[in-house]
Design a protein that fits this description.
- The chain is mostly helical.
- The protein has one domain (3-85, 97-151): Up-down Bundle (Four Helix Bundle (Hemerythrin (Met), subunit A)).
- The protein contains 5 helices and 2 strands, in the order αααββαα.
- It has helices spanning 3-27, 33-54, 68-88, 112-136, 146-151, and strands spanning 97-101, 107-111.
- It has a two-stranded antiparallel sheet with strand order 1-2.
- A hairpin with a 5-residue loop joins strand 1 (97-101) and strand 2 (107-111).
- The longest helix has 25 residues, at 3-27.
- It is globular.
């Protein structure tokens, strides 16, 4: 499997996992406020990075207030956008360096492959926080382990 295909698989995983989290928050009736903030942040942060890669303005603040319906819409839209980005990436594109400013206005340079790895790890990190928060509130969190998704044929 080449790296582009691997990142495509991570896009599929990310979409599935984010939608599982959103569904579990809906099932909880009244989701913990922090959990809803974290899922909105996950999606916003993905927009931040995709916007940087595409040299566009980001559509949301880093910590936006989004309803679960808005989160679901954005999770689906982001997956489509990430797939389009990867499909349009030229040979060697993963090794290109991107100059950007972070949210503090500091200038940084990162390789595209490092950015992609960060995006999916950052999202998984916050989904773990959501799982702990949801369980602490007495609800059953989404089971979003990567290997579970692959084994069940939910992530290809």
């Amino acid at each position: 499997m080449d790296l582009l295909h691997h990142y495509g698989q991570l896009v599929n995983y990310d979409e599935w996992a984010n939608l599982e989290v959103i569904a579990s928050l809906r099932r909880s009736g009244t989701p913990p406020a922090r959990s809803q903030q974290w899922i909105a942040h996950i999606l916003s942060a993905e927009h931040v990075w995709l916007s940087r890669l595409l040299h566009r303005q980001q559509p949301y603040a880093v910590w936006p207030e989004l309803s679960l319906e808005e989160c679901e819409r954005e999770a689906k839209n982001l997956a489509t956008s990430w797939r389009e980005y990867l499909n349009g990436l030229a040979s060697g594109g993963l090794d290109q360096e991107l100059a950007y400013k972070n949210t503090k206005g500091e200038t940084w340079h990162s390789l595209v492959r490092d950015i992609l790895t960060h995006v999916f790890m950052h999202s998984a990190y916050h989904r773990g926080q959501i799982a702990a928060d949801t369980r602490q509130a007495g609800h059953v969190p989404a089971y979003t382990d990567f290997i579970h998704g692959v084994r069940q044929g939910l992530v290809k």
